[in-house]
Write a structure and sequence with these properties.
The protein is an alpha+beta fold and 476 residues long. It has a 6-stranded mixed β-sheet with strand order 6-7-8-3-9-10, with helices on both faces. Strands 13-12-11-14-20 form a 5-stranded antiparallel β-sheet. A 5-stranded antiparallel β-sheet has the order 15-19-16-17-18, with no helix packed on it. The model has no long low-confidence stretch (mean pLDDT 89). It starts with a strand and ends with a strand. The chain has 8 helices and 32 strands.
Length: 476
């Protein structure tokens, strides 16, 4: 028997021909684990849950239960129960009949049903509620009844699709702890879907962070929080300061114009992104900090003050127990174990284009008209023709070219007639002195842009890149 109760192997799901909701997902879940699939709206997390539950069939890939392929089994033949965000309780039935509904379909004896319903009501702490009607219950009580109805069937796996989303903050906090206790008591496998980072960190044995239909990182809550693998995870999980920098020596990196000692080690010259959590930023006297700056805002967050310090063009967010006035000069320091280094994604903005008959490089979403002579040493360009040193025409049509757009040179415009490509802003991350935007074109290609000005997610923009921001080389 497999050591995993559920395995997803290269699962993809496409609702339309060219747009995958989930793309090439592989995930293994051990029996008894509490696994949370975390990500923003539209990232594919609910689609994964629905495929495991049998409500959707994968376009490709396999779903294994205890090593056996269940990819095409209907929901009623899977040992899985689902708790939905809207609970889906029957309003015309009382609590007892809501919980007993699945048991009655199995035609179990009445005394067995009575015993099972009584037990799960004790588990969800609602003993004595058997005769109550659904409309008399609070949101938190209805949520517990939905869980009771699911677990009374003794499933091997319980799927929870944002079940706490409709609750107020205090009730949500209470239900997080109750769910964790239920999981420990029942010992069954929980697969929980949410966009709430605090829920994921509070309850999970393992967190799966998703974005744009792909898994970004998997790990324990501590690993995800302390050692994010990319800027998306660092920005999505909690608050982060993220700065572009360079490795300058053994366990040393430079960012914000200053060299810091680090615990992570990469080859000298490696481009990195440094992640510093606000709670790891030390505010001190101006002459005692590695960095100096001026406080530009202080916001009370209940248990701490969120202090933003401007150092040159970089904004650094810190946490302090006491308020600090705007305009005050401070020093900023960071201990080595408060700095997490991530290798910079060198593949951002690398695309393949094809040279056409007019010596333009055609991309999926647009085209550029570069000087192609550096790609063909000794060549000479005349109008729309390229010639070698002997004056013979070089046939370039159909030749593939790798094109790189430098995100630092790119600009955004709200004029659709400008720019090489157009699309909607899919995400943004603040990087200390600029925003990192992902612009998704109509062909679902992502373009990365660094811009100091704030745009909104969903804005339709053009991506403008001057020739000095574009480099070309022949594709291998």
């Amino acid at each position: 028997m497999s050591e995993y109760i559920i395995e997803l192997k290269n699962i993809s799901k496409c609702y339309t021909k060219d747009t995958p909701a989930v793309e090439d997902i592989s995930l293994s879940v051990r029996k008894g684990e509490f696994v949370t699939i975390l990500g923003p709206s539209g990232c594919g997390k609910t689609t994964i849950l629905r495929m495991i539950g049998g409500f959707e069939l994968p376009t490709s890939g396999q779903i294994l239960l205890n090593g056996k392929d269940i990819s095409n089994l209907p929901p009623n033949q899977r040992p899985v129960n689902t708790v939905f965000q809207k609970y889906a309780l029957f309003p015309y039935l009382n609590i007892y009949d809501n919980i007993a509904f699945g048991l009655k379909l199995k035609k179990l004896p009445k005394d067995v049903i009575d015993e099972k319903v009584k037990h799960v009501l004790e588990v969800v702490d609602l003993e004595g509620f058997e005769d109550r009607r659904i409309h008399t219950l609070s949101g938190g009580q209805q949520q517990r009844i939905a869980i009771a109805r699911a677990i009374v069937n003794e499933p091997e796996i319980l799927l929870l699709d944002e079940p706490l989303g409709a609750l107020d903050y205090k009730m949500r906090k209470e239900m997080q702890l109750e769910l964790k206790l239920m999981h420990e008591e029942l010992g069954i496998t929980f697969l929980f879907v949410t966009h709430d980072q605090e829920e994921a960190l509070t309850m999970s044995d393992k967190i799966v962070v998703m974005s744009n239909g792909r898994i970004q990182q998997m790990g324990t809550p501590e690993e995800i929080y302390d050692e994010p693998e990319n800027a998306f995870v660092a920005d999505f999980i909690g608050e982060s300061n993220i700065f572009n920098g360079m490795v300058t020596g053994e366990r040393k990196a430079s960012f914000c114009g200053t060299e810091f000692d680090c615990v992570d080690d990469f080859e000298r010259g490696t481009r990195i992104q440094a992640v510093i959590r606000p709670e790891d930023v030390i505010l001190t006297e101006p002459d005692k900090g590695r960095l100096q700056g001026e406080i530009i805002s202080s916001i009370f967050k209940g248990t701490f003050h969120e202090i933003t310090v401007l150092h040159g063009k970089d904004e650094i967010v810190a946490q302090a127990q006491k308020d600090m006035p705007k305009g005050q000069k401070v020093g900023v320091d960071i201990e080595p174990d408060g700095i997490h280094l991530m290798p910079f994604n060198e593949m951002e903005n690398h695309y393949i284009g094809v040279i056409d008959s007019e010596l333009r490089v055609r991309l999926v979403d647009g085209s550029t008209k570069p000087d192609l002579t550096p790609l063909f040493p000794g060549s000479k360009q005349v109008d729309d023709r390229l010639y070698d040193e002997q004056g013979r025409e070089i046939i370039t049509e159909g030749v593939k070219v790798e094109v790189y757009f430098n995100p630092r040179y790119a600009d955004l415009s709200d004029d659709p007639s400008e720019g090489i490509v157009q699309g909607h802003i899919e995400s943004l991350i603040y990087m200390g002195d600029h925003y990192r935007y992902v612009v998704r074109s109509r062909n679902d290609v992502d373009y990365f842009v660094y811009d100091e000005y704030l745009w909104n997610i969903g804005d339709y923009v053009s991506v403008i890149i001057p020739e000095e921001g574009i480099t070309y080389k022949l594709a291998e």
